[in-house]
What we know:
The complex is a heterodimer. Chain A is of the alpha/beta class. Chain A has one domain (6-121): Transcription Regulator spoIIAA (2-Layer Sandwich). Chain A contains four helices and five strands, in the order E-E-H-E-H-E-H-E-H. Chain A has helices at 23-40, 57-72, 84-93, 106-121; strands spanning 7-9, 12-16, 44-48, 76-80, 101-103. Chain A has a five-stranded mixed β-sheet with strand order 1-2-3-4-5, sandwiched between helices. In chain B, 35% of the residues lie in helices and 28% in strands. By secondary structure, chain B is of the alpha+beta class. Chain B has a five-stranded antiparallel β-sheet with strand order 1-2-3-5-4, with helices on one face.
Amino acid sequence: MDRIPILKMGEYLLVTIQVDMHDQLALALQEDLTERINRERAAGVLIDISSLDVVDSFIGRMIGNIAAMARVLDANTVVTGMRPAVAITLVELGLSLEGVHTALNVERGMALLRKKVAARNA
Amino acid sequence: MPEGDGNSTNAARTCDLRLPIRASEDIVRMRHAVREHAVALGFSLVDQTKLVTAASELARNTLIYGGGGEAELTALRIGERRGLRLEFVDRGPGIADVQQAMQDGFTTGTGLGLGLGGARRLANDFRIESTPGRGTRVMILRWR
């Protein structure tokens, strides 16, 4: 089965979702990321969704689950690049992604992640 | 529950495209087909996104709760108006209490329970017919 690649950069894990994921692929990413956070002792996870033109409740739930699991494993999560049309639709759908940190793009996302990790280590 | 008027339009009852919903990859294919139709009809980016998202929710219901079925896409051209009607049909167990199923947060599965209510909010018209033991048909319609 296909997998979404997870890149390691220092104490961070980076994921850019560039395909329209079917449900099993989304579930596999959730499992892979949780496992990698634990194995790599990652302090932060950045998930870029700027290529996604649709985020439905299944993908939204996966994003929320990843953030929750990362938190339990003492890691921070930032989701970057959500398209405006996707954001409008998500809110109307009834999904507000509470507890998920977001940033406009990867650059700002990394800055936010570094700040959060620094605050945690302080 | 508000009744949609999507079935009372002059458009013929035949659909333009019928797609199987048998596996989660079929949901992805269906999303792409809905996007293509919405673009061809001149929908705005936000409206395309809303329609594709609603379709994705309903197709997943067809797959998970209906045991699979079909999606029917119909372009509507009435005078200057342009719309897209989507129907999701299964021959699954049906829904015992449709009112309850429409409520946000209600699910008999493991999801968030946002599918039906969310799809209704994302569409202009919404209609659901379900007969226990016979199956479910959900129609959504969005005008450009």
